[in-house]
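Q: Predict the bound structure with pyridoxal-5'-phosphate.
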Amino acid sequence: MTVERDATLRALPSVDQLLRTLVGRPELSGIPRARLTETVREVVGGERRRAREGRAATADAAVLASRVVEHFSSGSPFSLRPVVNATGVVLHTNLGRALLGPEAVARLAAVATAYSNLELDLATKERGSRYSHVAPVLTRLTGAEAALVVNNNAAAVLLALETLARGKEVIVSRGELIEIGGEFRIPDILARSGARLREVGTTNRTHPRDYANAIGPETALLLKVHTSNYRVVGFTADVSSRQLVEIGRERSIPVMEDLGSGSLVDLRPFGFPYEPTVPEVVTSGVDLVSFSGDKLLGGPQAGILVGRRDIVARVQRNPLNRVLRIDKLTLAALEATLLAYESGDALATVPTLARLTEALEAVTARARRALARLDPVTRRRLAAGIVKTSGQVGGGALPVVELPTAAIAIGATGSDARSLDAALRNGVPPVIGRIADDRLLLDFRTVLPADILPLTQALKAAAARLPE
Ligand SMILES: *Cc1c(COP(=O)(O)O)cnc(C)c1O
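A: Predicted complex:
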């Protein structure tokens, strides 16, 4: 392996050499020299890194050159681009989580292109608060006394802990010391807030008396955390929000719950398991509840805090709130999303809810429509057919739920699923599927009607490149 590795490293063309082989390529005309050099450097550097790490690498200048050309062949000067989500994961953090509905986008555009009353009280012409635009609708929807929004839920948790428990103790069950993706770990966030973690119970079982016995003069907060992305099953016990509130009330210690996803609607009628909604958690008496704007709520990235008036006011006055503050575009999209819930048509107009509650028949019909657009030659070459499968909610919500869904399965005859997956991923627009049992699955729960035409064009192009 090392001999092979050293040979690859030695044979790897230099940035200048590769640049010279690219001179005059028509696909690269008009590309600024600095951007071209940067991309060549990335391609060569990436290969060098792979070789050093003992992974498969190539030193073939022609292959590397075509990779550079491919990089620019999207014809788009943008790095951040729309993709076709064919993974079946409705809230995919790597693919941008929730999509905004048309009304939210319209509000966002309206507020982006005009001056607004962001921090102006129109009635008095005095300085207003940016939070005043969504706090009333949030309190109406959740039943809480007060509400505050910040940049994301991780920020909301940090801000709340810093406000309520800096220099003091926070009691958390060992079963809830979670890590969600992207470096968010409850013990670390707690440490950063300046609070001290007091763990109670065990991984699988925590009882009310565990919290009660741990409360002391240093205790500032009882924290309950939603185990968003996993489940402990079997011999388990946890303490409900209501029980925790009872303990907290008795000892005058506030209770906070980080709900993670936090849904405003009960999804049981659509076949989902029971999850407490935000209004239910508020009703149980929890003093402060935090949740994300772009998970099950289906809005823009935001962190939402609802709860007791005096506690929310303290959090709002924290200077850190200024650091984590929400921007006006997010506020505009969030307000529109929340108003959709209030007018009762969220299930139809909030794309996340529409995707999650769409009947299997409708998903299957969309997959069939796409398959029918493929000509017989393409279909045969891709060995494409419809399969019933299951997808995920994603975004650390409802982790054990298997959403029934329909996919176009591609068992391409001439090539393996991985190379087809790579070809589609590097196409225009990029199509992101998933591989299962050596087949490429394109899951239609997350493929939007507007994706069908570009998706079928991408499939035709990929099929045409397969060997006969
Ligand atoms: C997702 C999640 C967070 C972080 O929310 P972001 O909006 O992604 O910052 C925090 N806590 C829990 C339990 C979560 O599931």
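A: DSSP finds 20 helices and 18 strands in the chain.
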